[in-house]
Amino acid sequence: MRYGYFGPAGTFTEMALLRLPGVEDVERVPIASVEAALEAVRDGSVDAAVVPIENSVEGGVSATLDALSSGADLVVVHEVLVPITFVLAARAGTTLADIRGVGSHPHAWAQVRHWMGARLPEATYVPCLSTAAAAAGLAGDDTAYEAAVCAPVAAQAHGLQVLAEDIGDNRSAVTRFVLVARPGRLPEPTGADKTSVVLFQADDHPGGLLELLEQFAARGINLTRLESRPTGDALGRYCFSIDFEGHVNDERVGETLMGLRRVCADVRFLGSYPRADGAVVEVRPGTRDTDFTAARAWLRGLRNG
Ligand SMILES: O=C(O)C(=O)Cc1ccccc1
């Protein structure tokens, strides 16, 4: 098996990949952007790819959400949660006073803003493709920045000096990563599963979002993430990217998806997969599989007279 990941080596995404079960037998292929990593899955050059999707501080990773909601269908087959610790790294001999520019990934920069405001208020942010790419840049001598915000492993891998440790504004920051594959066999239901979809509505109308939410509420389904993303067609046109508890094989999830299919112009199914936190889904009274099958049998009886 070949797994692509948002690289180069030393990104937080590589750490997520290393936490996957059976990774010892997997060939790891670093790919410099999320879009290219997902495209490599689509064109078959890798079997699956790991990308960041959601951050407990910054919210959804737009590049991932947008690349999953357009183009050929892909599905999430696994999720991984990684606690994130940032360091400020620089070439040997650099002091805080020498730093004019700081290179990093936009999601990393957003999570160290307060630290930077307090300790390096004059420093300019230099956007880089990833935290590890920012660190790798410092291994050469021609960069528009003197320090990088990256993972401790990336600083170490490039022989950089760590000027400050644990500089994240929120010490309990966690990023959620997903393993994405071409549609095929679904992961088995475990009782602690999540399902992801992107919902497109035909038009903009009062109560449009409520109509979607009602489908979930009526079947006792708890949402774990809800984001609106521009469709790109026109200003004000949005789709909804949603994660919710349950597996597509659960009756209540199947009924919800059918309800959504009726009221949406398009429902893009992004997979059912085991939850990384293992939290068992609490099924509300009246929404168990047996409740749905009994209700269906009752209706069949009515129709048969
Ligand atoms: O740039 C990286 O190392 C990534 O994997 C993306 C990222 C950046 C910041 C927090 C979590 C993931």
From TrEMBL:
Annotated Prephenate dehydratase domain residues: 2-182
Protein keywords: Amino-acid biosynthesis, Aromatic amino acid biosynthesis, Lyase, Phenylalanine biosynthesis
A Pfam family hit: ACT
EC number of this enzyme: 4.2.1.51
GO biological process: L-phenylalanine biosynthetic process
Annotated site (Essential for prephenate dehydratase activity): 175
InterPro entries, A to Z: ACT-like_dom_sf, ACT_dom, Chor_mutase/pphenate_deHydtase, Preph_deHydtase, Preph_deHydtase_CS
An annotated Gene Ontology molecular function: prephenate dehydratase activity
Domain ACT: 197-274
Name of protein: Prephenate dehydratase
Organism of this sequence: Oryzihumus leptocrescens
